[in-house]
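Hey, I was hoping to borrow your eyes for a little while. No rush at all, and the record is pasted right below:
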Amino acid sequence: MLDHTLAGAYNLLVNCGQARAGEYLLLCYEPDYLGYYDAAIVQDIKACALEIGLNVTLCELGFEPFITAMPPHVEAAMVAADLTVFLARAADQLRFSGFNAGERVVVSFALSGESLASCFGTVHYAATLALKQAIDTVLFAAKEIAVTSESGTMFTGRIGVSPEGGDANMRRFPMLVNTPAPASGFAGRIALPGFLVGTGSKYYAPYGITFEGQLFAVFDGNTLIGFEGKKEDEAKANRHLDYIADRFSIDRNFVHSWHIGIHPGCYFDRAAIDHLDSWGGSAFGNPRILHMHTCGAYAPGEVCWNVIDPSLVVDGVTLWQDGVLFPERVPGGAEILDEFDDLRQMFQAPDQRIGL
């Protein structure tokens, strides 16, 4: 019988990665001294893989701030493997462009052994995948979507296109968000949570900046109209975008897409402001966070806007209220909760920790 502490690793390998005994697993990992993934998660996944009969190859993968393609030796190892699991930011950086559709590739957004063993990692992958698909269906078919927050966010619109082709082209574990919704059909303003931070595409310095007061980002479709708030905060935000746009020769004012957290077990138990890189790479799956990709006419852009505790109304039905997702209000959601009791239990006591 599998050790209960490895239940999250089993969920990743078998329920998400579809691993079968006798197959070859390539486990690519960042060394823990980089401070992003810890060593325990590597060892737990390796131990589980061996226990279920996989042949395991470990591959240490360093961190490159501006990676554009996998190193050739990693690509060759992926071809030889049946399943590749990344405990490395490189996969997240290349999530929209770096993999072939036919490959079984999983990137883990659980960053530690503790996170993987928690309900965040152990709730059945099929449960959150089914919920994601149900949410995609209702959002992409909606005639009107309205997003608000008590801090002053207000934007409305509709998607009006198919979700096909808009998602990352590898498997995310756990499943955290809906398919990104194009911003082109929306307009309004975003109440920023006191900072701007990168999207995990490229890592630059400073990766995040903070503000003294409440700052709003005003947009219309794919265009940032401007910032509204204290003059010094407006100027700071504009300088930051100018710097990034000049450095990477991208459209500073482009607003690409947005998604919202769907996993009630997603948590961040440190202060976000002290760990903006890992916060931006993992906390966004909590239903308390809506996340917009901006600064660059491609997914995911280089700067994200975050809405904290959003309310989301779809064709008059409130699916999120102040950061709480009500899955039973999503068409098909009640049936998903009936099938997966572990998901139901998480929604009855969602994790509120988002580092803010």
Observations:
- The chain has a mean pLDDT of 93.
- Residues 36 and 278 are 6 Å apart (CA to CA).
- Residues 125-348 form one domain.
